[in-house]
Amino acid sequence: MRRNFCGLRLSVGSLLVTLLTCPAAQSSPASQSSGSPTTVVIDAGHGGHDRGGIPGQRVAEKDMTLDVAQRLRNVLSASGYHTVMTRDSDVFVPLPTRVAIANSYRNAIFVCIHFNATGRAGAGGIETYFYSRDSLPLASAIHNLVVGGAPSSNRGVRRRGYYVLRKTNIPAVLVECGFLTNPTEAAYAQTASYRQKLAEEIAAGVRGRNSVASDSYIDQTKVAKSAHGRSKRPHKKSARKKKSSSKPAGSEARSGSINREA
């Protein structure tokens, strides 16, 4: 499949992001579906100095998220979707830049990849987050397929105002692909076949987002507000705050899932 290329430059602070890939040709399978978004902005959580997870965590979340994101890009591209990566290497990208990239595309969707962590090794499972109501069908489709193909428990679809979900103007979801602090789930995450399976199930959810019934969900927006007060710093945690001296403000896409107990 032939692609055209162009340069889109976004500047936030001192960081300059250049996006090279332009939309796929109109003959691609994804673009033949009338009214269906053909651009998927894929956001690999963390990166650079931001390892993700909790202090002392052996498996770096930033490495796992990038690998799954790259695999997801490959699967979706093969299906004719135009894909955009907020990061395609081990670099730190601030949250406002990730949002700016997503919002620069019309008729698109945003998929943020994360893995969970907590101080209790027994906690595990898959959970998917959304914020705006028009993102619920996407969240439901992705969640059902990822849970169905993973040997992990179902922690449900949840509504919460994480920065990258709240600030995007397009349907957006954040997928927590398991707990890297759970020995069993961490072992799965470190296998290429499992990361490929995650990418394929997420891609299937993207393709089937308009044909899957929306799930019931847990609304955590009020819980987050009561726990965090009026703070706008997205890296603050709710219960059992983790030490964040090594985590700069704005480094987290989510604010509370890391330390939530099962």
Notable characteristics:
alpha/beta; Aminopeptidase; 29% helix; globular; disordered N terminus; 262 residues; 7-stranded mixed beta sheet; single chain
Class based on secondary structure composition and strand pairing: alpha/beta
Number of helices: 7
- The poorly predicted ranges are 1-29, 226-252, 254-262
Q: Please tell me how large the radius of gyration is.
A: 17 Å
**Shape type:** globular
Helical percentage: 25-40%
Indicate the CATH topology: Aminopeptidase
In CATH, the architecture is 3-Layer(aba) Sandwich
> CATH first level: which class?
Alpha Beta
Number of strands: 9
Give the rounded overall mean pLDDT.
79
**Main sheet: strand order:** 4-3-5-8-6-7-9
Compute the number of structural domains. Answer: 1
How is the biggest beta sheet arranged?
Answer: 7 strands, mixed
The fourth-level CATH homologous superfamily is Zn-dependent exopeptidases
Beta content comes to 15-25%
SSE series:
EEEHEHEEHEHEHHEH
Quote the distance from N terminus to C terminus: 45 Å
Summarize this entry quickly.
This protein has 262 residues and is α/β, with parallel strands linked by helices. 29% of the residues lie in helices and 21% in strands. Strand 6, helix 3 (136-148) and strand 7 form a beta-alpha-beta unit.
Task: Explain this structure.
Helix 1 crosses helix 6 and helix 3 (about 135-150) packs antiparallel against helix 6 (about 190-205). Strand 6, helix 3 and strand 7 (about 155-160) form a beta-alpha-beta unit. The chain contains 7 helices and 9 strands; from the N terminus they run E-E-E-H-E-H-E-E-H-E-H-E-H-H-E-H. The strands form 2 sheets. The chain has a 7-stranded mixed β-sheet, sandwiched between helices. Mean pLDDT is about 80; it is low at about 1-30, about 225-250 and about 255-260. By secondary structure, the chain is α/β, with parallel strands linked by helices. It is globular and about 40 Å long. The chain has one domain: Zn-dependent exopeptidases (Aminopeptidase, 3-Layer(aba) Sandwich), CATH 3.40.630.40. It has helices at about 60-80, 95-105, 135-150, 165, 185-190, 190-205, 220-230, and strands at about 5-10, 15-20, 40-45, 80-85, 110-115, 125-130, 155-160, 170-180, 220. About 30% of the residues lie in helices and about 20% in strands. The longest helix is centred in the first third of the chain and has 18 residues, at about 60-80.
